[in-house]
From TrEMBL:
This is tRNA 5-methylaminomethyl-2-thiouridine biosynthesis bifunctional protein MnmC. Its EC number is 2.1.1.61. It holds the Pfam family NAD_binding_8. One of its GO terms (molecular function) is tRNA (5-methylaminomethyl-2-thiouridylate)(34)-methyltransferase activity. Residues 25-49 are annotated as: Disordered. It comes from Microbacterium hydrocarbonoxydans. The gene is mnmC. Residues 1-22 form the signal peptide. Residues 46-120, 293-452 form the Amine oxidase domain. GO terms for biological process: methylation. InterPro entries: Amino_oxidase (IPR002937), FAD/NAD-bd_sf (IPR036188), Flavin_monoamine_oxidase (IPR050281), TAT_signal (IPR006311). The keyword Cell membrane does not apply. Keywords: Methyltransferase, Signal, Transferase. Residues 27-41 have a biased composition (Pro residues). SUPFAM superfamilies: FAD/NAD(P)-binding domain.
Length: 456
């Protein structure tokens, strides 16, 4: 096994400073990296990208998916069960525990603050507390607990903080950071918006759609059939899938316009229509999306400012009783705490990546087993010139067999010829399995749809 040094970040009031410890730990999970050598001739014709970056969250062992969803037949109350603390020693946070906005950055942030409040209500002065995971939920919990007198340590399996938020900052390649995870915020995400404003992080609004088929531009498909199908399904005695609800309502999920719309839903929420519940359906993407165009790492860094963060420190075992919690770190160390907040993704909990002793109660295990982990992947491409002359910022491919059907064109808002593809569901899992050359070729082939003479 290749060995690397463990990094311990120790906050020192004015900022987070890195202190390298010399102990050996397994190499952290591979994280998506920008490709500095795009191939000169893309498959599918058209101009070659001058920068390329892609994600592979579906196969990343620290994520094993992108966003939790509620599968057919599952109650959203499962999220409350997952969020329930155990013996006032173990607390749970992370987007999957937020029933209001699961699968989102806002939900993750809120869950971290909620778990921290629950822990504070149980904790005594000066107790030793650990947080497992330094994504938005873990960072929000750390921020709430930082100045409370508790002795706090965050354990993170990767060699960076942020989890499913990752801004690639590279001024040579990307005029705006390439965002490989969460980066679009909703109108209700006031906490995140306030933090972005306070840190002076740039945002831009993407709201002008363009729907393109092989014949050229077509009318936007109506979202009404989906809304009607959900309403009808919610009157049934038992839950059915969104795909079944559409079929029962006389709509054909394979019809090109509806299929393109459902691809956008999957790329925004994670599940395909045949997996998603009609009773607790994925949210339809709003017309206007606010995109973060700056470094989201600054938000994370501010939240954990002053907190001890141990990077490349995967927690492999959590042993708990009425007296406290012992954490087994993958390096072999075992450390004792009074209370612990677990924020790892649902995909990690489902994979048995962490052994709990004793086993978690049925309520938690049931929730972990029945909630779904959806797949979303993203690909960023920068060109010397915009691919086509348009003010449209959200492009949809109607028909055809390309996997990546939804694209954000950042040129109108940033002035840079950057295209961002998003893909969800089973197509995302397939995309994650591609190597970089094949992923780039798939992206270029998908973009060729929009460069046909009829489209332009
Ligand atoms: C491609 C993609 C696009 C998305 N788009 C959006 C969007 O536009 N808008 C939006 O609101 N949301 C979006 N999301 C969802 C959003 O990013 C997540 O909901 C949110 O970031 C999850 O935060 P979290 O803290 O719950 O989990 P995470 O960020 O996953 O944090 C959990 C942390 O635990 C760590 N960990 C895992 N296992 C261990 C272990 N054994 N020991 C120690 N640490 C461990 C992980 O490395 C990670 O850092 C997107 C997600 C993806 C992947």
């Amino acid at each position: 096994m290749k060995m690397t040094r463990r990094t311990l970040l120790v906050g020192a009031g004015a900022g987070v400073i890195g202190v390298l410890l010399a102990s050996c730990t397994p190499e952290p999970a591979p994280t998506p990296t920008p490709d500095r050598s795009p191939s000169p001739t893309p498959t599918g014709g058209g101009p070659a990208p001058v920068a390329f970056a892609r994600s592979a969250w579906s196969t990343d062992p620290s994520a094993l998916g992108a966003a939790s969803f509620t599968p057919v037949g599952v109650q959203s109350a499962s999220r409350d069960a997952l969020a329930t603390s155990i013996r006032d020693r173990l607390f749970f946070a992370g987007e999957a525990t937020d029933a209001d906005a699961p699968g989102t950055m806002a939900g993750a942030l809120r869950s971290g603050t909620r778990a921290a409040e629950e822990l504070l209500a149980a904790a005594g002065a000066g107790e030793r507390v650990a947080i497992v995971g330094a994504g938005l939920a873990g960072a929000a919990a750390a921020s709430r607990l930082a100045s409370t007198g508790l002795v706090l340590t965050v354990f993170e399996s990767r060699d960076r903080i942020g989890g499913r938020v990752q801004s690639i900052v590279d001024d040579e390649l990307w005029p705006v950071p390439a965002q490989l995870g969460g980066w679009l915020i909703g109108a209700d995400d006031t906490d995140l918006s306030e933090q972005l404003n306070a840190l002076d992080i740039r945002t831009g609004v993407l709201e002008t759609p363009m729907w393109i088929s092989a014949e050229g531009e077509v009318a936007a498909p109506s979202t009404q059939p989906i809304a009607d199908a959900i309403t009808a399904a919610q009157a049934l005695p038992a839950d059915i899938s969104l795909a079944q609800a559409l079929a029962d309502a006389g709509a054909d999920p394979a019809e090109p316009g509806l299929a393109a719309l459902l691809a956008y839903v999957a790329a925004s929420a994670g599940p395909d229509a045949d997996q998603a519940s009609s009773w607790f359906p994925p949210m339809l993407p709003p017309d206007a999306r606010t995109a973060v165009l700056g470094d989201l790492g600054a938000v994370l860094a501010q939240l954990v400012d002053g907190v001890k963060v141990s990077l490349s420190s995967a927690v492999s075992r959590v042993a708990y009783d009425d007296a406290g919690v012992s954490l087994g770190i993958a390096t072999g160390e075992s450390l004792s705490f009074d209370r612990v907040i677990i924020t790892v993704p649902l995909g990690v909990l489902q994979s048995d990546g962490i052994e709990f002793a004793p086993k978690l109660p049925f309520a938690q295990r049931g929730a972990i087993a029945e909630l779904g982990m959806g797949f979303i992947e993203t690909v960023w491409l920068r060109f010397d010139e915009p691919l086509i002359d348009t003010e449209a910022t959200i492009w949809h491919a109607v028909g055809g067999d390309q996997k990546i059907r939804t694209w954000f064109n950042l040129a109108p808002v940033t002035g840079d010829a950057i295209m961002v593809g998003i893909v969800g569901g089973a197509d995302a899992a397939e995309f994650a399995a591609l190597d970089d050359a094949a992923a780039r070729a798939a992206a270029m082939a998908a973009l060729a749809t929009f460069m046909q003479p009829a489209a332009a």
